[in-house]
Automatic annotation (TrEMBL):
Signal peptide coordinates: 1-19
Name of the protein this chain belongs to: Arfaptin-2 isoform X4
Keywords of this entry: Signal
Gene transcribed to yield this protein: ARFIP2
InterPro entries: AH/BAR_dom_sf, AH_dom, Arfaptin_fam
Pfam families hit by this protein: Arfaptin
Every AH domain range: 93-293
Record organism: Erinaceus europaeus (Western European hedgehog)
Length: 313
């Protein structure tokens, strides 16, 4: 029987009774042949020594491996904690007051999204109404020129439709400003706070996962090896605790500022909406224009090549 060859590939010792097969494995794996067992042969030293570039590549690969390893361990601990909470076997840290505020924010955001949707629908209907009134006014004006016996009747109806169009454009500008402000409040201000809330909830899960891990290790034997693991777990727990408490403070501050900003914005927008709608349906053109001036709303001048109020949405 031919002497066996051995090679190390992917951390495993491969043995084969055929030297040809072993050499094939060696060439494919890029590992040098160690020679027959007991043959006394030594590996060749003619290979090119590793350069600085190889060392840098190994360093980068090692860093990436450490990152993936830490990510894997963290994901495993958090998944384990999440499942234990779902099935009622694990404990979770709860800040009742803060979580009540977070749930209230989510509910408020859903209601404001409904108002935003209805406001956009109102804008579309007003725009459609303006188009119809404008066309109707043009039709009345044309008929007043072609029907001498009804010229006066068609004439004042045409003027009425033109006045309604003018007031309607003013109302549409106010409603568009109202919708734009609600959109900013919902999609930017509230969403920014909820992004911080998501980070806080993830930090809370990590904190509880490492807290549970530390508690389990504390119940184990206190030998030399366990002491080192316990110190490492304590350090990881403290780091995640600091992160959790920082994000909890950030969420509390953002919730406070959001509430103040919401009240300020909505006070202005609700007053604008009420005054504009009331003046429009009362036929008070002067009050309607004063409302827009009060809130610094500028209408699109006639003939301008800017998009319509509806298109800007």
């Amino acid at each position: 029987m031919k002497p066996a060859l051995c090679l190390v590939a992917m951390g495993a010792l491969v043995m084969d009774s055929s030297p040809q097969v072993c050499c094939l494995y060696l060439r494919e794996a890029g590992v040098r042949e160690l020679g027959p067992l007991g043959s006394g042969r030594h590996p060749s030293h003619s290979a090119t020594p590793a350069g600085p570039g190889d060392e840098v590549a190994r360093g980068i690969a090692g860093e990436k491996f450490d990152i993936v390893k830490k990510w894997g361990i963290n994901t495993y601990k958090c998944t384990k904690q999440l499942l234990s909470e779902r099935f009622g076997r694990g404990s979770r840290t709860v800040d009742l007051e803060l979580e009540l505020q977070i749930e209230l924010l989510r509910e408020t955001k859903r209601k404001y999204e409904s108002v935003l949707q209805l406001g956009r629908a109102l804008t579309a209907h007003l725009y459609s109404l303006l188009q119809t009134q404008h066309a109707l006014g043009d039709a009345f004006a044309d008929l007043s020129q072609k029907s001498p016996e009804l010229q006066e009747e068609f004439g004042y109806n045409a003027e009425t439709q033109k006045l309604l169009c003018k007031n309607g454009e003013t109302l549409l500008g106010a409603v568009n400003f109202f919708v734009s402000s609600i959109n900013t409040l919902v999609t930017k201000t509230m969403e920014d706070t909820l992004m911080t809330v998501k980070q806080y909830e993830a930090a809370r899960l990590e904190y509880d996962a490492y807290r549970t891990d530390l508690e389990e290790l504390s119940l184990g034997p206190r030998d030399a090896g366990m002491r080192g693991r316990l110190e490492s777990a304590q350090a990881s727990f403290q780091a995640h605790r600091d992160k959790y408490e920082k994000l909890r403070g950030d969420v509390a501050i953002k919730l406070k500022f959001l509430e103040e900003n919401k009240i300020k914005v909505m006070h202005k927008q609700l007053l604008l909406f009420h005054n504009a709608v009331s003046a429009y349906f009362a036929g008070n053109q002067k009050q309607l224009e004063q409302t827009l001036q009060q809130f610094n709303i500028k209408l699109r001048p006639p003939g301008a090549e800017k998009p319509s109020w509806l298109e800007e949405q």
